[in-house]
Amino acid sequence: MISDLSLCRFATEDALPRLGLIANAHLYDLSERPEPQWATMEAWLVAAGWRVDEALAELEALAPELDAVCPVEQLLDETRKPRVIAPLDTQEVWACGVTYEMSREARKRESDSPTVYGLVYDAPRPELFFKSTPHRVVGPGDAVAIRGDSDWDVPESELTLVITPQMEIVGYTIGNDMSSRDIEGENPLYLPQAKIYERCCALGPVVRLIGRVDPMNLEVTCTIYRDGDAVFQGNTNTSNIHRPLESMVDYLGRCNRFPSGAFLLTGTGVVPPDSFTLEEGDEVEIAFEELGTLRNPVIRLPIE
User: Fold this and answer.
1) What's the DSSP call for residue 81?
2) What is the value of pTM for the model shown?
3) Which tens digit of pLDDT belongs to each residue from 104-153?
4) Which helix (H) or strand (E) holds 7?
5) Is the N or the C terminus of the chain less surrounded, counting Cβ atoms within 10 Å?
6) Domain 92-300 adopts which CATH fold?
């Protein structure tokens, strides 16, 4: 149950995205307030810059002044309205790779150039790559995709950092970094094709705000269902992340600007066996302790 201070985006019957506050096990509509900082996720991230503690205190104080829209259970029910949607609006999504030992070993096995993954795992500078524009991101219950020109595809369950334009971590959500392992393994220069395409990333269900959870001690479970049966399940803990979260954010912000904030995936410690690949019709379920559960069906994109 997500009952503590969190942000989300949700859709109502008119399908217009709204910014929501979750507190006391209920959803509150921030967008109904006249102040501009509550209108969108971008507006709140911009307003929170340089004043994160104050911005969080404002959210806590605001809940008693609002009327509850619905209980959290209803919000997270993908068959009902209001319905939770992807938490970003205008933000870019980036990713930091090879941050778990399991990921390092998996990348080395798949690659024709295995040494690059061993080197980056221990190097001061992390692997950072652009993952997605907002329109390529889906939310809970929406379909993620596998490429029509790939034969080895997997989900990657990742703690995702929510960052202000001033490169401050303000919250955490769940990310699914869909990956075409055969394309990346053939040549590291094919990484953008393996990572960036329509429906290549899922985020949600909510942004759990800092100070409410320990991001470096969260249990993670990834389960893949096929025809109703679990065909893969793997577990890890975010304590196995090899790099400090602040260091990843620092490198992301070097010589770079994010005027509306950013989302940063922090790597995966759950890797299906090399014999496994996703199929159309599968369902991916990623559960993070204290952050909730992100579920998405899988479709295959045609080559057009």
Assistant:
1) S
2) 0.95
3) 565 556 555 656 777 888 888 999 999 999 999 999 999 999 999 999 99
4) strand 6-11
5) C
6) Fumarylacetoacetate hydrolase; domain 2 (3.90.850)
Contacts of 206 (CB under 8 A, 6+ apart): 2, 6, 7, 8, 22, 84, 87, 173, 291, 292
- Domain residue limits, the chain: 6-85, 92-300
Q: What is the pLDDT of residues 112-125, one digit of tens each?
A: 565 677 788 888 89
End-to-end distance of the chain based on CA atoms, in angstroms? Answer: 42
Q: What are 8-47's pLDDT values in tens digits?
A: 999 987 768 999 999 999 999 999 999 999 999 999 999 9
CA distance 23 to 20: 10
| Rounded-to-integer distance, Cα 214 and Cα 173, Å | 13
- Across the chain, mean pLDDT equals 93
CA nearest to 191, candidates 140, 241, 130, 146: 130
> In Å, what is the CA distance from 160 to each residue of 58, 94, 149, 165, 262?
23, 9, 28, 16, 10
